[in-house]
Structure prediction request, 427 residues.
Amino acid sequence: MNVYDSELVSTLLEKSGYTECKDLRDADAIFLNTCSIREKAEDTVNNRLTNFKHLKRKNPNLIIGVLGCMAQNLKNDLLESKPWVDVILGPDSYRRLPEILDERKNNLDHLVDTRLSRFEVYEDMFPNRRDGINAWISISRGCDKFCTFCIVPFTRGRERSRLIAGIISETKQAVADGFQEITLLGQNVNSFRTPEGDFPDLLKAVAAVKGVSRVRYTSPHPQDIDDRLLQVMKDHENICNHIHLPLQAGSDRILKRMNRTYSQKEFLNLAEKIRLYLPDCAISTDIIVGFPGETEEDFLQTLNVIRQVGFDSAFMFKYSSRPGTKAAEYTDQIPEDIKQSRLERLIELQKNVSLIANQKQIGNILQVIVEKESKKSTRQWAGRTEGNCWVVFDKGNEQINDIINIKITDARGITLFGERIYEEVQV
Ligand code: 5AD
Ligand code: SF4
Prediction:
Protein backbone atom coordinates (compact mmCIF):
# COMPACT_ATOMS: atom_id res chain seq x y z
CA MET A 1 0.00 0.00 0.00
CA ASN A 2 2.82 2.37 0.82
CA VAL A 3 4.64 1.58 -2.43
CA TYR A 4 1.45 2.56 -4.26
CA ASP A 5 1.01 5.71 -2.18
CA SER A 6 4.63 6.73 -2.78
CA GLU A 7 4.04 6.30 -6.53
CA LEU A 8 0.98 8.57 -6.18
CA VAL A 9 2.96 11.21 -4.32
CA SER A 10 5.86 11.22 -6.76
CA THR A 11 3.40 11.52 -9.68
CA LEU A 12 1.72 14.50 -8.00
CA LEU A 13 5.08 16.18 -7.48
CA GLU A 14 6.23 15.49 -11.04
CA LYS A 15 3.02 17.06 -12.36
CA SER A 16 3.86 20.19 -10.38
CA GLY A 17 7.31 20.47 -11.90
CA TYR A 18 9.48 18.58 -9.41
CA THR A 19 11.89 15.83 -10.47
CA GLU A 20 13.11 12.89 -8.48
CA CYS A 21 16.81 12.80 -7.55
CA LYS A 22 18.69 9.71 -6.53
CA ASP A 23 21.09 11.29 -4.05
CA LEU A 24 19.56 12.70 -0.86
CA ARG A 25 22.28 15.35 -0.73
CA ASP A 26 20.95 16.88 -3.97
CA ALA A 27 17.34 17.09 -2.76
CA ASP A 28 15.39 20.28 -2.09
CA ALA A 29 12.71 18.26 -0.35
CA ILE A 30 12.67 14.79 1.20
CA PHE A 31 9.49 12.93 2.09
CA LEU A 32 9.31 9.78 4.15
CA ASN A 33 6.19 7.71 3.62
CA THR A 34 5.72 5.98 6.93
CA CYS A 35 4.09 2.95 8.53
CA SER A 36 2.79 2.56 12.10
CA ILE A 37 1.78 -1.08 12.00
CA ARG A 38 4.48 -2.15 14.49
CA GLU A 39 6.86 -0.26 16.75
CA LYS A 40 9.83 -1.46 14.69
CA ALA A 41 8.51 0.33 11.59
CA GLU A 42 8.25 3.55 13.58
CA ASP A 43 11.76 3.12 15.01
CA THR A 44 13.17 2.83 11.48
CA VAL A 45 11.52 6.12 10.49
CA ASN A 46 12.69 7.89 13.64
CA ASN A 47 16.28 6.81 12.95
CA ARG A 48 16.13 8.08 9.39
CA LEU A 49 14.63 11.38 10.51
CA THR A 50 17.47 11.80 12.98
CA ASN A 51 19.96 11.32 10.14
CA PHE A 52 18.17 13.96 8.08
CA LYS A 53 18.86 16.54 10.78
CA HIS A 54 22.48 16.72 9.53
CA LEU A 55 21.35 17.28 5.95
CA LYS A 56 19.20 20.13 7.14
CA ARG A 57 22.14 21.71 8.97
CA LYS A 58 24.10 21.73 5.70
CA ASN A 59 21.14 22.97 3.66
CA PRO A 60 18.75 25.06 5.81
CA ASN A 61 16.32 25.41 2.89
CA LEU A 62 15.81 21.66 2.69
CA ILE A 63 12.18 20.67 3.32
CA ILE A 64 11.68 17.49 5.33
CA GLY A 65 8.25 15.89 5.32
CA VAL A 66 6.62 12.93 7.04
CA LEU A 67 3.71 11.33 5.17
CA GLY A 68 1.34 8.47 5.92
CA CYS A 69 0.36 6.61 9.04
CA MET A 70 3.01 7.94 11.41
CA ALA A 71 2.13 11.49 10.43
CA GLN A 72 -1.44 10.67 11.37
CA ASN A 73 -0.59 8.85 14.54
CA LEU A 74 2.33 10.78 16.00
CA LYS A 75 2.07 14.33 14.77
CA ASN A 76 2.42 15.96 18.22
CA ASP A 77 5.28 13.68 19.10
CA LEU A 78 7.07 14.50 15.85
CA LEU A 79 6.55 18.24 16.21
CA GLU A 80 8.01 18.13 19.69
CA SER A 81 10.88 15.71 19.28
CA LYS A 82 11.91 16.48 15.68
CA PRO A 83 11.48 20.22 15.16
CA TRP A 84 13.45 20.00 11.89
CA VAL A 85 10.47 18.21 10.26
CA ASP A 86 8.65 20.89 8.21
CA VAL A 87 5.65 19.10 6.75
CA ILE A 88 3.37 16.44 8.26
CA LEU A 89 0.65 14.99 6.03
CA GLY A 90 -1.69 12.10 6.82
CA PRO A 91 -2.74 9.50 4.21
CA ASP A 92 -5.76 11.48 2.98
CA SER A 93 -3.93 14.79 2.43
CA TYR A 94 -1.47 14.04 -0.39
CA ARG A 95 -3.36 16.14 -2.92
CA ARG A 96 -2.35 19.21 -0.92
CA LEU A 97 1.36 18.50 -1.30
CA PRO A 98 2.13 20.79 -4.31
CA GLU A 99 0.14 23.62 -2.72
CA ILE A 100 1.90 23.09 0.60
CA LEU A 101 5.32 23.18 -1.03
CA ASP A 102 4.41 26.51 -2.68
CA GLU A 103 3.09 27.88 0.59
CA ARG A 104 6.27 26.85 2.32
CA LYS A 105 8.25 29.36 0.25
CA ASN A 106 6.56 32.21 2.18
CA ASN A 107 5.68 30.53 5.44
CA LEU A 108 8.32 28.86 7.55
CA ASP A 109 5.89 27.42 10.11
CA HIS A 110 5.31 23.69 10.32
CA LEU A 111 2.62 22.68 7.85
CA VAL A 112 0.40 19.96 9.21
CA ASP A 113 -2.68 18.31 7.70
CA THR A 114 -3.83 15.03 9.16
CA ARG A 115 -7.56 15.31 8.56
CA LEU A 116 -9.06 11.99 7.55
CA SER A 117 -11.58 11.97 4.75
CA ARG A 118 -14.65 9.81 4.25
CA PHE A 119 -14.29 10.12 0.48
CA GLU A 120 -10.66 10.49 -0.65
CA VAL A 121 -9.66 7.53 -2.85
CA TYR A 122 -7.30 9.43 -5.23
CA GLU A 123 -9.67 8.39 -8.01
CA ASP A 124 -8.35 10.35 -10.98
CA MET A 125 -4.63 10.21 -10.25
CA PHE A 126 -2.88 7.44 -12.13
CA PRO A 127 0.50 6.88 -10.55
CA ASN A 128 3.71 6.58 -12.58
CA ARG A 129 5.05 3.15 -11.83
CA ARG A 130 8.58 1.91 -11.70
CA ASP A 131 9.76 -0.87 -14.03
CA GLY A 132 8.74 -4.38 -13.28
CA ILE A 133 6.13 -7.01 -13.91
CA ASN A 134 3.58 -6.05 -11.30
CA ALA A 135 1.43 -2.93 -11.02
CA TRP A 136 -0.22 -2.27 -7.65
CA ILE A 137 -3.69 -0.76 -7.87
CA SER A 138 -5.41 0.47 -4.75
CA ILE A 139 -9.14 -0.34 -4.86
CA SER A 140 -10.19 0.81 -1.42
CA ARG A 141 -8.77 2.71 1.52
CA GLY A 142 -9.22 2.52 5.27
CA CYS A 143 -10.66 -0.28 7.37
CA ASP A 144 -13.75 -0.73 9.54
CA LYS A 145 -12.90 -4.12 11.03
CA PHE A 146 -11.17 -2.88 14.20
CA CYS A 147 -9.10 -5.94 15.03
CA THR A 148 -8.04 -5.09 18.58
CA PHE A 149 -4.27 -5.18 17.83
CA CYS A 150 -4.38 -2.98 14.75
CA ILE A 151 -3.71 0.73 14.30
CA VAL A 152 -4.92 0.89 10.67
CA PRO A 153 -8.56 1.89 11.36
CA PHE A 154 -7.20 4.85 13.35
CA THR A 155 -4.47 5.97 10.95
CA ARG A 156 -6.24 5.33 7.66
CA GLY A 157 -9.80 6.01 8.72
CA ARG A 158 -13.09 4.65 7.45
CA GLU A 159 -13.31 2.15 4.66
CA ARG A 160 -14.23 3.50 1.22
CA SER A 161 -14.13 1.91 -2.24
CA ARG A 162 -13.15 3.36 -5.60
CA LEU A 163 -15.44 3.06 -8.60
CA ILE A 164 -15.00 -0.01 -10.82
CA ALA A 165 -14.76 2.16 -13.94
CA GLY A 166 -11.77 4.08 -12.51
CA ILE A 167 -9.97 0.87 -11.51
CA ILE A 168 -10.51 -0.57 -15.00
CA SER A 169 -9.09 2.59 -16.64
CA GLU A 170 -6.06 2.36 -14.37
CA THR A 171 -5.65 -1.33 -15.24
CA LYS A 172 -5.73 -0.49 -18.97
CA GLN A 173 -3.14 2.23 -18.42
CA ALA A 174 -0.88 -0.20 -16.52
CA VAL A 175 -1.13 -2.73 -19.36
CA ALA A 176 -0.36 -0.02 -21.92
CA ASP A 177 2.71 0.86 -19.80
CA GLY A 178 3.93 -2.74 -20.11
CA PHE A 179 2.78 -4.33 -16.83
CA GLN A 180 1.20 -7.76 -17.20
CA GLU A 181 0.47 -8.52 -13.57
CA ILE A 182 -2.08 -6.48 -11.60
CA THR A 183 -2.34 -6.69 -7.81
CA LEU A 184 -5.50 -5.18 -6.36
CA LEU A 185 -4.84 -3.65 -2.99
CA GLY A 186 -6.88 -2.81 0.06
CA GLN A 187 -6.75 -3.28 3.82
CA ASN A 188 -9.74 -5.54 3.24
CA VAL A 189 -9.99 -6.04 -0.50
CA ASN A 190 -12.98 -8.33 -0.38
CA SER A 191 -15.25 -5.95 1.48
CA PHE A 192 -15.01 -3.72 -1.61
CA ARG A 193 -18.52 -2.43 -2.38
CA THR A 194 -19.81 0.09 -4.93
CA PRO A 195 -23.15 0.76 -6.59
CA GLU A 196 -21.64 -0.90 -9.70
CA GLY A 197 -20.79 -4.15 -7.92
CA ASP A 198 -18.75 -5.91 -5.23
CA PHE A 199 -15.33 -7.56 -5.14
CA PRO A 200 -16.13 -10.64 -7.28
CA ASP A 201 -17.63 -8.29 -9.92
CA LEU A 202 -14.50 -6.14 -9.87
CA LEU A 203 -12.18 -9.15 -10.09
CA LYS A 204 -14.10 -10.44 -13.11
CA ALA A 205 -13.89 -7.04 -14.81
CA VAL A 206 -10.13 -6.67 -14.20
CA ALA A 207 -9.46 -10.23 -15.44
CA ALA A 208 -11.33 -9.38 -18.65
CA VAL A 209 -9.02 -6.47 -19.53
CA LYS A 210 -7.03 -7.38 -22.64
CA GLY A 211 -3.34 -7.95 -21.95
CA VAL A 212 -3.67 -8.78 -18.23
CA SER A 213 -1.75 -12.03 -17.80
CA ARG A 214 -2.16 -12.29 -14.04
CA VAL A 215 -4.44 -10.79 -11.42
CA ARG A 216 -3.69 -10.98 -7.70
CA TYR A 217 -5.25 -9.32 -4.69
CA THR A 218 -4.23 -8.66 -1.11
CA SER A 219 -5.36 -8.89 1.65
CA PRO A 220 -8.78 -10.42 2.01
CA HIS A 221 -10.47 -10.95 5.38
CA PRO A 222 -11.46 -14.61 5.91
CA GLN A 223 -14.94 -13.52 7.01
CA ASP A 224 -15.69 -12.02 3.58
CA ILE A 225 -14.51 -14.85 1.31
CA ASP A 226 -17.63 -16.34 -0.26
CA ASP A 227 -18.51 -18.93 -2.89
CA ARG A 228 -18.98 -16.29 -5.59
CA LEU A 229 -15.41 -15.07 -5.16
CA LEU A 230 -14.02 -18.61 -5.36
CA GLN A 231 -16.16 -19.34 -8.42
CA VAL A 232 -14.84 -16.22 -10.19
CA MET A 233 -11.28 -17.35 -9.41
CA LYS A 234 -12.06 -20.81 -10.77
CA ASP A 235 -13.61 -19.42 -13.94
CA HIS A 236 -10.70 -17.15 -14.89
CA GLU A 237 -7.37 -18.62 -15.95
CA ASN A 238 -5.55 -15.35 -15.37
CA ILE A 239 -6.64 -14.89 -11.74
CA CYS A 240 -3.76 -16.42 -9.81
CA ASN A 241 -4.37 -19.54 -7.77
CA HIS A 242 -3.14 -17.86 -4.64
CA ILE A 243 -4.94 -16.46 -1.63
CA HIS A 244 -3.23 -14.58 1.15
CA LEU A 245 -5.47 -15.51 4.07
CA PRO A 246 -4.39 -13.89 7.36
CA LEU A 247 -5.01 -16.31 10.25
CA GLN A 248 -3.38 -14.15 12.99
CA ALA A 249 -3.89 -16.83 15.69
CA GLY A 250 -5.19 -20.37 16.01
CA SER A 251 -6.92 -20.37 19.38
CA ASP A 252 -10.59 -19.41 19.59
CA ARG A 253 -10.01 -17.49 22.81
CA ILE A 254 -7.31 -15.31 21.22
CA LEU A 255 -9.23 -14.90 17.94
CA LYS A 256 -12.16 -13.60 19.96
CA ARG A 257 -9.95 -11.19 21.90
CA MET A 258 -8.48 -10.04 18.60
CA ASN A 259 -12.02 -9.42 17.25
CA ARG A 260 -11.22 -11.49 14.16
CA THR A 261 -14.87 -12.68 13.85
CA TYR A 262 -14.07 -16.32 12.90
CA SER A 263 -13.23 -19.42 14.90
CA GLN A 264 -10.45 -21.93 14.30
CA LYS A 265 -13.00 -24.36 12.88
CA GLU A 266 -14.43 -21.77 10.50
CA PHE A 267 -10.94 -20.90 9.25
CA LEU A 268 -10.09 -24.58 8.70
CA ASN A 269 -13.39 -25.10 6.85
CA LEU A 270 -12.65 -22.09 4.68
CA ALA A 271 -9.17 -23.41 3.77
CA GLU A 272 -10.80 -26.72 2.84
CA LYS A 273 -13.44 -25.00 0.74
CA ILE A 274 -10.76 -22.97 -1.10
CA ARG A 275 -9.02 -26.21 -2.02
CA LEU A 276 -12.29 -27.77 -3.17
CA TYR A 277 -12.85 -24.93 -5.62
CA LEU A 278 -9.18 -24.43 -6.47
CA PRO A 279 -7.25 -27.66 -5.85
CA ASP A 280 -3.80 -26.16 -6.60
CA CYS A 281 -4.39 -22.89 -4.78
CA ALA A 282 -1.41 -21.60 -2.78
CA ILE A 283 -2.46 -20.22 0.60
CA SER A 284 -0.23 -17.85 2.54
CA THR A 285 -0.92 -16.14 5.84
CA ASP A 286 -0.03 -13.63 8.56
CA ILE A 287 0.53 -14.76 12.16
CA ILE A 288 0.98 -12.75 15.34
CA VAL A 289 2.59 -14.41 18.38
CA GLY A 290 2.51 -13.10 21.93
CA PHE A 291 -0.85 -11.34 21.73
CA PRO A 292 -1.90 -10.25 25.27
CA GLY A 293 -3.04 -13.25 27.32
CA GLU A 294 -1.68 -15.85 24.85
CA THR A 295 -0.84 -19.00 26.84
CA GLU A 296 1.46 -21.83 25.75
CA GLU A 297 -1.71 -23.82 24.97
CA ASP A 298 -3.07 -20.99 22.77
CA PHE A 299 0.25 -20.79 20.94
CA LEU A 300 0.26 -24.57 20.35
CA GLN A 301 -3.18 -24.20 18.75
CA THR A 302 -1.67 -21.71 16.28
CA LEU A 303 1.08 -24.22 15.43
CA ASN A 304 -1.59 -26.89 14.96
CA VAL A 305 -3.58 -24.84 12.47
CA ILE A 306 -0.37 -24.10 10.56
CA ARG A 307 0.34 -27.83 10.30
CA GLN A 308 -3.24 -28.63 9.29
CA VAL A 309 -3.56 -25.97 6.59
CA GLY A 310 0.05 -26.39 5.38
CA PHE A 311 0.46 -22.74 4.39
CA ASP A 312 2.78 -22.22 1.44
CA SER A 313 4.33 -19.23 3.20
CA ALA A 314 3.71 -16.89 6.11
CA PHE A 315 4.57 -13.44 7.39
CA MET A 316 5.22 -13.88 11.11
CA PHE A 317 5.27 -11.12 13.72
CA LYS A 318 5.69 -10.58 17.43
CA TYR A 319 2.72 -8.67 18.80
CA SER A 320 3.60 -4.99 19.06
CA SER A 321 1.47 -2.89 21.38
CA ARG A 322 0.00 0.11 19.52
CA PRO A 323 -1.13 2.91 21.84
CA GLY A 324 -4.77 3.79 21.24
CA THR A 325 -5.84 0.26 20.24
CA LYS A 326 -7.97 -1.91 22.51
CA ALA A 327 -5.34 -4.64 22.91
CA ALA A 328 -2.79 -2.10 24.18
CA GLU A 329 -5.01 -1.69 27.24
CA TYR A 330 -5.11 -5.39 28.10
CA THR A 331 -3.21 -5.91 31.33
CA ASP A 332 -1.84 -9.38 30.52
CA GLN A 333 0.88 -8.36 28.03
CA ILE A 334 3.39 -11.11 27.22
CA PRO A 335 7.08 -10.66 28.18
CA GLU A 336 9.51 -10.00 25.32
CA ASP A 337 11.56 -13.19 25.87
CA ILE A 338 8.45 -15.38 25.52
CA LYS A 339 7.34 -13.53 22.38
CA GLN A 340 10.82 -13.98 20.92
CA SER A 341 11.00 -17.70 21.66
CA ARG A 342 7.48 -18.30 20.26
CA LEU A 343 8.42 -16.41 17.11
CA GLU A 344 11.52 -18.55 16.67
CA ARG A 345 9.54 -21.78 17.18
CA LEU A 346 6.92 -20.57 14.71
CA ILE A 347 9.50 -19.66 12.06
CA GLU A 348 11.15 -23.06 12.45
CA LEU A 349 7.83 -24.88 11.94
CA GLN A 350 6.78 -22.71 8.98
CA LYS A 351 10.15 -23.31 7.31
CA ASN A 352 9.44 -27.04 7.30
CA VAL A 353 5.80 -26.57 6.27
CA SER A 354 6.85 -24.34 3.33
CA LEU A 355 9.51 -26.83 2.30
CA ILE A 356 6.98 -29.69 2.31
CA ALA A 357 4.55 -27.58 0.23
CA ASN A 358 7.34 -26.72 -2.22
CA GLN A 359 8.61 -30.30 -2.45
CA LYS A 360 5.13 -31.33 -3.59
CA GLN A 361 5.76 -29.20 -6.69
CA ILE A 362 8.76 -31.28 -7.80
CA GLY A 363 7.90 -32.88 -11.15
CA ASN A 364 5.10 -30.38 -11.87
CA ILE A 365 5.17 -28.01 -14.83
CA LEU A 366 4.40 -24.47 -13.67
CA GLN A 367 3.78 -21.26 -15.55
CA VAL A 368 6.41 -18.65 -14.69
CA ILE A 369 6.84 -15.01 -15.71
CA VAL A 370 10.54 -14.23 -16.20
CA GLU A 371 11.14 -11.33 -13.84
CA LYS A 372 14.85 -10.68 -13.23
CA GLU A 373 18.32 -12.15 -13.14
CA SER A 374 18.85 -14.56 -10.26
CA LYS A 375 20.78 -13.03 -7.34
CA LYS A 376 23.23 -15.94 -7.27
CA SER A 377 24.19 -16.24 -10.95
CA THR A 378 24.14 -14.09 -14.08
CA ARG A 379 23.48 -17.30 -16.04
CA GLN A 380 20.11 -17.87 -14.40
CA TRP A 381 16.74 -16.15 -14.33
CA ALA A 382 14.29 -15.81 -11.45
CA GLY A 383 10.57 -15.71 -12.02
CA ARG A 384 7.40 -16.17 -10.00
CA THR A 385 4.74 -18.86 -10.17
CA GLU A 386 1.02 -18.20 -9.84
CA GLY A 387 1.40 -19.13 -6.17
CA ASN A 388 3.94 -16.28 -5.86
CA CYS A 389 6.88 -18.60 -5.27
CA TRP A 390 10.29 -17.74 -6.78
CA VAL A 391 11.70 -20.22 -9.32
CA VAL A 392 15.33 -20.13 -10.48
CA PHE A 393 16.32 -21.67 -13.82
CA ASP A 394 19.09 -21.53 -16.46
CA LYS A 395 18.83 -18.80 -19.07
CA GLY A 396 17.82 -19.81 -22.58
CA ASN A 397 16.57 -17.55 -25.34
CA GLU A 398 13.69 -16.15 -23.27
CA GLN A 399 13.50 -12.51 -22.15
CA ILE A 400 12.25 -10.70 -19.06
CA ASN A 401 8.42 -10.51 -19.18
CA ASP A 402 8.05 -13.80 -21.13
CA ILE A 403 5.60 -16.35 -19.80
CA ILE A 404 7.13 -19.80 -19.98
CA ASN A 405 6.66 -23.32 -18.61
CA ILE A 406 9.14 -24.62 -16.10
CA LYS A 407 9.44 -28.19 -14.86
CA ILE A 408 10.26 -28.09 -11.15
CA THR A 409 13.28 -30.24 -10.31
CA ASP A 410 14.18 -29.16 -6.78
CA ALA A 411 12.93 -27.20 -3.76
CA ARG A 412 15.33 -25.60 -1.28
CA GLY A 413 14.17 -23.29 1.51
CA ILE A 414 11.47 -21.10 0.02
CA THR A 415 12.82 -21.24 -3.55
CA LEU A 416 12.01 -23.65 -6.36
CA PHE A 417 14.46 -24.71 -9.08
CA GLY A 418 13.60 -26.01 -12.53
CA GLU A 419 14.22 -26.21 -16.22
CA ARG A 420 12.35 -24.75 -19.15
CA ILE A 421 9.95 -26.99 -21.04
CA TYR A 422 9.36 -26.10 -24.67
CA GLU A 423 5.78 -26.81 -25.68
CA GLU A 424 5.44 -29.53 -28.28
CA VAL A 425 3.83 -28.23 -31.41
CA GLN A 426 1.14 -30.62 -32.63
CA VAL A 427 1.25 -30.94 -36.41
N1 5AD B 1 1.60 -6.26 16.11
C1 5AD B 1 2.10 -7.23 15.30
N2 5AD B 1 1.64 -7.47 14.06
C2 5AD B 1 0.62 -6.70 13.61
N3 5AD B 1 -0.04 -6.71 12.45
C3 5AD B 1 -0.97 -5.73 12.48
N4 5AD B 1 -0.93 -5.09 13.66
C4 5AD B 1 0.06 -5.69 14.39
C5 5AD B 1 0.57 -5.48 15.68
N5 5AD B 1 0.07 -4.55 16.51
C6 5AD B 1 0.21 -7.69 11.38
C7 5AD B 1 -1.03 -8.54 11.10
C8 5AD B 1 -1.50 -8.02 9.77
C9 5AD B 1 -0.18 -7.61 9.13
C10 5AD B 1 -0.30 -6.66 7.99
O1 5AD B 1 0.53 -7.00 10.19
O2 5AD B 1 -0.62 -9.89 11.00
O3 5AD B 1 -2.18 -9.00 9.00
FE1 SF4 C 1 -6.06 -4.11 10.68
FE2 SF4 C 1 -6.54 -5.87 8.67
FE3 SF4 C 1 -7.91 -6.02 11.02
FE4 SF4 C 1 -8.35 -3.97 9.32
S1 SF4 C 1 -8.77 -6.21 8.95
S2 SF4 C 1 -8.13 -3.84 11.55
S3 SF4 C 1 -6.27 -3.61 8.51
S4 SF4 C 1 -5.68 -6.37 10.69
